Amino acid sequence: MRNELEALNLLFKMMNKLLLTSDAASKEVFQMLQDEIVVRLRSVGKKDNAQMVSQTQNHDAEDSLLKWGEHHGVKSKLRIAFYQGAGRGMVASESIGVGDTALEIPESLIISEELLCQSEVFLALKDFNNITSETMLLLWSMRERHNLSSKFKTYFEALPENFNTGLSFGIDALAALEGTLLFDEIMQAKQHLRQQYEDLFPLLCTNFPEIFRKDVCTWDNFMWACELWYSNSMMVVLSSGKLSTCLVPVAGLLNHSVSPHILNYGRVDEATKSLKFPLSRPCDAGEQCFLSYGKHPGSHLVTFYGFLPRGDNPYDVIPLDLDTSADEEDGAAQSMSTSQTTHMVRGTWLSRSGGFPMYGLPQPLLSHLRAALGCGLDESTTEADIKENDRVLLETLLSIFNPMLEDLPETDESDRESASWDVKLALDYKDLQRMIISSIVTSCTSALENAPRWKLKVLH
Predict the structure, then answer these.
(1) For residue 415, which of 17, 255, 329, 385 sits 20 to 30 Å off, Cα-Cα?
(2) Cβ atoms of 136 and 123 closer than 8 Å
(3) Global confidence as pTM
(4) Of the candidates 403, 397, 402, 407, which has an alpha carbon nearest to the alpha carbon of residue 430?
(5) Cis peptide before 278 (omega within 30 of 0)
(6) For 264-280, b where at least 16 C-beta lie within 10 A, e where not — what string?
């Protein structure tokens, strides 16, 4: 989806250049081509908005944020709306075309390392235990949130009390994830943040009591700041040329999609000293405008953002670590470049070659297993050997993925209905993992059943 958007945008820009330099007869042709490109861009991601149900909700804080932004130079063709299951989002207040700027944020409103350097937090901590600028920004945010005279007071007031990311998962949600890689990812992240907090406090409160008050520097406030930066930060090239992790007020209200309207952003315009968000596909008035958070799998989005994207996410994968080391008495070099190889396995329904003979199974993984199992092909390999090798290959895959499927029982829907937000999200992720693994098992089984003269062995 993203590749299609990128390719169509490149063609759109080419047509723009040709329209500026061509004669009248050629312009007519190029305009027709550009119009067709726009039609195709409109068709990409049509389902996103249809699946979002708008809700009526008080958003005084968000309206105040927009007014505050406009007062400080923000230019926007978007307004705020609330969506069931997605929270806040931004909607086009007018029809916006390809290449047009939906949102423009002055660099002076971007919370970055350059802003940090002007603060007393930086002056106090710049020589403290090799502390990083990212950690200082996190501490600045935790403190600035409670600063009534802050320039960013309106911004902080518009932020949610709880971000509801995977980092906030309770015991029941973590129990629902047990057996998945996401469980390990969240537990490791929680342990890392707890250790980071204990390294900072109460030491900072003791050394800098006027800057770091004990009532502000609590674990809950620290976690709030962590989730703020994980879920709202953007990588931005500032006018100085430095790439920095930043908070961009107002822009943080945009929701993510695997087929977004806004693909390319992140560099401050040197002429206007502002960060612009141009559209890669059209957005009609009243339609939700989506931003790309990046090429992330569901596990990352759950842990650090607190949601799973709607529709098929091509970056949803199951990492499969394969140990290909072999005992070689003569010490000869292995045929593999490494003894530990990780393959990212996607749902087979995403494959363009979903039929016979391999039913959408990932070719890099198949090639790797063939080599590991000694099922490689050469000029002397007979047709019978090829079929036998493929049978061994597919049964090996089943021996890997069948146990994984058994460890992920189907969710009892009655449990989901009364569950808390974190348990529901955990169950949604578990269902996604089961769907990916099930597709691989189904593809292997179909390939074995439909290949001539193969007999499917029952694997326990």
Answers:
(1) 255
(2) no
(3) 0.84
(4) 407
(5) no
(6) ebeebeeeeebbbbbbb
